[in-house]
Design the sequence.
């Protein structure tokens, strides 16, 4: 497939892998040091200052299906069976069906995309994903006239995902994009990072990455992709509509109701590095601003 995107980032911008794996401890540690009173009070942060084993380190991913406590994913993410894996592609497509992971990646150009990744919690990284453009898959299944949105669903496996026993979200985890967002060359389905297969806690075997949107739009371990003419259910939007909009575009001018989105902490910039300004559309304004022409981004946040 033709390469349609050229990155403005290179390996020198990449968050070192050790820092990537360590990021939540680093965040917890620096928060403890800078936050008055937190140092003594926050047992979790104190504990996080102690160097961790690889297993500890990878327990800090956000993947609520494995629980909301930081130790849950390390204990349970390995339970997710990622082989075999299949994705149902249905709705307004010419070739609906159940496609195996192998069928999906076959013929796709898996390439490295070094992207900024901005979490809604105001930290950011630069991640070398391995993946292919979602548009290439959608072209292959044939999007029908009238389709306007793409809905995504994560696996729901109570036997493998202890977190789904708690009603934290209305499972399965679901997200959605407008069709033009889904077809944008920046939007990828990632099957790995740092040149390795996708770790379970990062959404193995295949997850979405939409680099100009807050991290929660990048849904993990996808089992269903549905083309539809109505705005899809989106888990965080449904859970807290005043805090998380359907669009969730990174926007320094629209604060989260409980904190500013104007700046972010770039992980890997050193423990004492200051915050950096958050860029409009996470630095991808040139590429994506035209998608939202004429829209009030404060109303459609
Ligand atoms: N299925 C699923 N996808 C998910 C989440 C989740 O809890 N479940 N968390 C989201 C959030 S809030 C973030 S910040 C990113 C984190 O991705 P990473 O752990 O690979 O950095 O995954 C997103 N995708
Ligand atoms: Mo997040």
Sequence:
């Amino acid at each position: 497939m033709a390469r349609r995107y050229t990155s403005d980032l290179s390996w020198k911008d990449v968050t070192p892998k050790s820092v990537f794996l360590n990021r939540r401890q680093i965040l917890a540690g620096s928060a403890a040091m800078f936050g008055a009173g937190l140092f003594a009070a926050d047992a979790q942060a104190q504990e996080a200052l102690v160097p961790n084993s690889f297993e500890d380190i990878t327990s800090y991913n956000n993947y609520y299906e494995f629980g909301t406590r930081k130790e849950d994913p390390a204990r349970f993410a390995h339970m997710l069976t990622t082989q075999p894996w299949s994705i149902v592609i249905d709705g307004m497509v010419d070739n609906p069906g159940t496609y195996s992971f192998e069928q999906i990646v076959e013929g796709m150009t898996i390439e490295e995309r070094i992207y900024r990744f901005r979490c809604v919690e105001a930290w950011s990284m630069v991640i070398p994903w391995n993946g292919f453009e979602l548009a290439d898959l959608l072209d292959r299944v044939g999007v029908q006239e009238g389709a306007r949105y793409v809905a995504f669903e994560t696996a729901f496996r109570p036997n493998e995902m202890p977190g789904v026993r708690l009603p934290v979200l209305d499972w399965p985890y679901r997200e959605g994009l407008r069709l033009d967002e889904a077809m944008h060359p920046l939007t990828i389905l990632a099957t790995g990072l740092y040149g390795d297969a996708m770790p379970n806690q990062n959404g193995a075997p295949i997850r979405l990455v939409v680099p100009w949107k807050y991290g929660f739009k990048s849904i993990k371990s996808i089992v269903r992709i549905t083309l539809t003419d109505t705005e899809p259910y989106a888990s965080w939007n449904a859970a807290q509509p005043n805090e998380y909009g359907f669009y969730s575009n990174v926007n320094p001018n629209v604060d989260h109701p409980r904190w500013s989105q104007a700046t972010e902490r770039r992980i890997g910039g050193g423990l004492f590095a200051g915050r950096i300004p958050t860029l409009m559309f996470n630095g991808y304004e040139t590429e994506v601003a035209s998608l939202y022409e004429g829209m009030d981004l404060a109303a459609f946040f």
Q: What stands out?
A: The CA atoms of residues 74 and 118 lie 23 Å apart. The chain has ten helices and twelve strands.
